[in-house]
Amino acid sequence: MTLERSSESIALPTTRSTRFNIQADSSYRAASIFQATANVSHGFQFNGGQPSPLDLPGCSNTSIQGVNDRGDVVGICNAGSSSAGSFKYTPATGALVPVAARGAVFTSVSAINNAGQIVGSYLDASNKFHGFLLSGGNSTTIDPKGSVFTALFGINNEGQIVGEYEDSQTASQGVSHGLLAAGPQLVDPVPDVLAGPSVANNTLLQSLGLFGRVVDGVATDGVTQVLVRIPANHVGDQFTITLLNDAQQVSVSPDADGALGNPGDTGLTQAKPTVTAIGVTAPGNSQAPLAFAIYRAPVDFARRNPDGSFQNGIRSFASSGAGWEVAASGTPVAGPPNVQTDNQLACRSVSVQIQDSTSGATSTLPI
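The structure corresponding to this sequence follows.
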């Protein structure tokens, strides 16, 4: 059996049926194939254009749902007579991590981006489906207002999420709505979100808050500032923003880890500010509830001990190579930690933990 795309033809593993369920990224890095006769689903991946099996240890059925550019794979595994469960698998390290949304009795993953953020759906104890985002080991429920059913299908490298939902009026008619959402983002304020040389305050962000370029991190120069943009449910919602160092502890050093503050603050020295969502003008003159914080970069990347030697740094949240894999509990699991002295690391992980003061839900944004 072959899979054809334009003039390209790729030979697939031997099958017992012509019925397929294929999930793959644009470069055909990984996919799953369903054999109807045997009632077995197998995964496979392409290395150098050649397919090879990707059946996970202990899984009688492997269904690959998503893969990112680093080779991280997410999907669903059925282990014999036991119920199916979702997983994240990193072929580079062999790390296999269960994925479970908070409050779920069943979790179904759909996609993973290059930052390692995972989206999908989960079933709760009341038999209701919700969407979820797993970021930095923290699970956040994503349900549009009025939703009685939510399913998330994809997330891109800018953190934009797509899916569908049903409300009480449309569910009985079998009609669903499209959904476009975004998790917390780091935004470069230059040049669109500035007031002179400074980042705009909340008053200006009411009109400028949807502008700016989404970025993955920041250089360590003690000066650079980025905007932390946080989607909210309502204007007035409050969030506690906590700066975590590379050991996932609350930062006590603005010089080593950077610092946080509210838009308009003249000095950024806080590790745990509270921010409030404002109404930001969106297309069609609608109001999007968003909260904002400012992150200022550390003074220097390499931290020294009193004797002049360099401190050990940890590169966590890595999606491939020797980085930590982070389970749904937030606990680093399988795969050796990448711990080296700061002067040997290409990057060091600092993150912002965002907690909704009303629901208690948390998400983590690596910087």
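The chain has two helices and 32 strands.
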